[in-house]
Amino acid sequence: VKFVYDFTEGNKDLKDLLGGKGANLAEMTNLGLPVPPGFTITTEACKTYLDSGEEPAALRDEVSAHLEALEAAMGKKLGQADDPLLVSVRSGAKFSMPGMMDTVLNIGLSDKSVQGLVQQAGDERFAWDSYRRLIQMFGKTVLGVDGELFEDALDKAKEAKKVTVDTELEAADLKKLVTRFKRIVKTEAGRDFPQDPREQMDLAIKAVFDSWNGDRAKLYRRQERIPHDLGTAVNVCSMVFGNLGPDSGTGVAFTRDPASGHQGVYGDYLQNAQGEDVVAGIRNTVPLAELESIDKKSYDQLMQIMETLENHYKDLCDIEFTIERGQLWMLQTRVGKRTAGAAFRIATQLVDQGLIDETEALQRVTGAQLAQLMFPRFDENAKAAQVGRGIAASPGAAVGKAVFDSYTAVKWSRSGEKVILVRRETNPDDLDGMIAAEGILTSRGGKTSHAAVVARGMGKTCVCGAEELEVDTKRRRMTVPGGHVVEEGDVISIDGSSGKVYLGEVPVVPSPVVEYFEGRMHAGADDADELVEAVHRIMAFADRKRRLRVRANADNAEDALRARRFGAQGIGLCRTEHMFLGDRRELVERLILADTDAEREESLKELLPLQKQDFVELFEAMDGLPVTIRLLDPPLHEFLPDITELSVRVALAEARKDPHENELRLLQAVHRLHEQNPMLGLRGVRLGLVIPGLFTMQVRAIAEAAAERRNAKGDPRAEIMIPLVGTVQELEIVREEADQVIAEVQAATGVELKLAIGTMIELPRAALTAGQIAEAAEFFSFGTNDLTQTVWGFSRDDVEASFFTAYLEKGIFGVSPFETIDKDGVGSLVKAAAKAGRETRPDLKLGVCGEHGGDPESVHFFHEVGLDYVSCSPFRIPVARLEAGRAAT
Ligand code: PEP
Ligand code: MG
């Protein structure tokens, strides 16, 4: 095998082998762009080293050969005393990965060659500054010396000189600093800073290999689900200097605006500086456009190169470049990150430019980006005082009074106040407050902190880890940079999409994309929003491509109509329990409490017309489209008063010697129905089997509603769905009763009804016996919420707020299995059940109606395993449509 590739030998498709950086450097080299010569050591070399603990035997020789070629090309040797070749050593994995070693510059400098550099550059200060940078970077990243020690020494040197910025240090000061730095290395690393340039290079290469297994790198990979066995490549590149005077400099550029997608000149330039100075913010950069007046020749060349790159990559690219004494050099390029809105615009712009086709355009956007565009946002034109910025943990725009504990959040929100819960960090005790709040703001913790995870689960706006904010929960206040104090009750605004925190109320505007889906804004109109236009076109691409149909989880006509506007092709789950709340609770209570058949039948008779009316409205809203109605599912205690509250009430009444007959009966019933694990108890089909008349009442309501709609010339397409089935016997009994009721309604109304009867698959046993269950089911709808709960043994109501944070932090999973389908476990059951079901009944219709139906990654999985449709909440329908289209490309 070959372990080292010259930049002339690679190309952009070799990312697995050369890493992202190396592959793109090679691509640019081969495009004839000015890339400083160099070579890339492959990920294979890294893997061999990590597996065996030793560098592959051939590597040293290959590196020597490539180094010699590089030296020949440059006409000088690495670290040569009178004119040293200097190189940078950079890590570069397939995916860009924070937590890995990044860069060591100026390798090749030593006590001797620094003199040579002084001569060659004609700049003593520059040479010594380069040398001290090398010792500092090398000491920190290769030898593991605490970086602060160097920073401290640098600060002391500045203090001694009474200057504030590095550039004011002179050659003599830097020379002294080099001595200090070397001493730090000696004491801390227990060895001298290596004077042999080849040893410097070899140690740096090894350090890059080792950094693949650094703790932070490993954690990052676990969270991002990047495999641990990819390894990193190492790029060795000849140095060019942007800090050789005013005719030198360094900058970054984008081939178009990463915020809007517009073409133009976007970027920053810093004269007389090296890359890390830009990051360190020592001096202010100037807009890239100003380079034109600073160095017209380089500017024109850069513009030309940017055009070449865009046409070549057919996408927005970002670029790092350096100008050394008027000569432009390209140091890096990659397909650039962009905002969600820009992603849609750029994709359609590139289609219009003829650079990509519709299929490729779909690959350039994601459902997550579309979801981001659908949140309400702060009015961009509003004046707002930003006081901090944290991590954008859960999108949305929230405004409310700051409160510093959960108790106050709940109390204030009960009295109608909008509140933002502000905490240093949250824990499970804050749950009530988080539910009550409009949004959550914390000063500590990252994307997987408790606050972030729980807020995302609740779809609540959250900014976390806003470290500049000093939150003092004891004194109920927070201090913002500059010293302003936000007291409890002061209004603040937080933006969960950008992480920004503002004082006061920032006006919120609805998302134009939602306005579009709602039909309140139109594509193609003269003044149409550019973004809406792009979304409209991409959605059309997706709809043309996708095989999966998309339905909605909706329980009432209003939601059904919205779902239709958003593109739903039916209802995949109507949860009938939502129809038994409010005024009807009392009837349900009576049904549950009934001692005699007569009593029970009485309450069912009263429920029937109400239930029928629900369905009439739903069928009307969804006329011509399938509507899957699920018979009652939840445990009955959900319709009864809370056991503790009721016990107290009865006890008080007894003390007053005034016990209420009904309340006593109710309490008895509550005790009778009380279950330790209600989600595994009397619910779903089990209810239908033990409460006579309940399911048949619902079936009758569905059948009569369908008949009524047919008589009104409507086109109702009802499907009856039985929940929580574990064995075909349960289904057969319910079916038999249902068929009889349907026959009765047909006979009574004279309307022929075609009502499909199917089941949910939400228990492992159902999935495992799907072949049998399909005998009695015309369709399956995978209830992946319960299926995840029962396969993992995770209580869906509790675990996300309890130990999931720990699980996410430990990288046991990168995302909650309630959010994204666990392909290996739950997913393989879905796949097997779908297959077995279709073997029994080839025309079995297959769908999914758990939360996963609207999750991008899960949608791709459901496409792959051949389901017919996904069903999700109305607001997630556009995302599901888009991802179904993407999955089909
Ligand atoms: C499910 O379990 O996935 C499902 C859709 O039903 P529910 O969430 O109502 O239990
Ligand atoms: Mg369920």
UniProtKB/TrEMBL annotation:
Record-listed Mg(2+) binding positions: E762, D786
Domain PEP-utilising enzyme mobile span(s) in chain numbering: 417-499
Gene3D superfamilies to which the protein is assigned, alphabetical: 1.20.80.30, ATP-grasp fold, A domain (3.30.1490.20), ATP-grasp fold, B domain (3.30.470.20), Phosphoenolpyruvate-binding domains (3.20.20.60), Phosphohistidine domain (3.50.30.10), Pyruvate Phosphate Dikinase, domain 2 (1.10.189.10)
Keywords: ATP-binding, Kinase, Magnesium, Metal-binding, Nucleotide-binding, Pyruvate, Transferase
GO molecular function: ATP binding; kinase activity; metal ion binding; pyruvate, phosphate dikinase activity
Entry keyword annotation includes tRNA processing: no
Binding site for substrate: R575, R630, E762, G783, T784, N785, D786
Cofactor (UniProt): Mg(2+)
The enzyme's E.C. designation: 2.7.9.1
Catalytic activities: pyruvate + phosphate + ATP = phosphoenolpyruvate + AMP + diphosphate + H(+)
Stretches assigned to the Pyruvate phosphate dikinase AMP/ATP-binding domain: 59-284, 291-341
InterPro entries named in the record: ATP_grasp_subdomain_1, PEP-util_enz_mobile_dom, PEP_util_AS, PEP_util_C, Phosphohistidine_dom_sf, PPDK_AMP/ATP-bd, Pyruvate_phosphate_dikinase, Pyrv/PenolPyrv_kinase-like_dom
Signal peptide: none
PROSITE patterns: PEP_ENZYMES_PHOS_SITE
The family this protein is said to belong to: Belongs to the PEP-utilizing enzyme family.
PANTHER family to which the protein is assigned, alphabetical: PHOSPHOENOLPYRUVATE DIKINASE-RELATED (PTHR22931), PYRUVATE, PHOSPHATE DIKINASE 1, CHLOROPLASTIC (PTHR22931:SF9)
Name used for this protein in its record: Pyruvate, phosphate dikinase
Organism: Streptomyces adustus
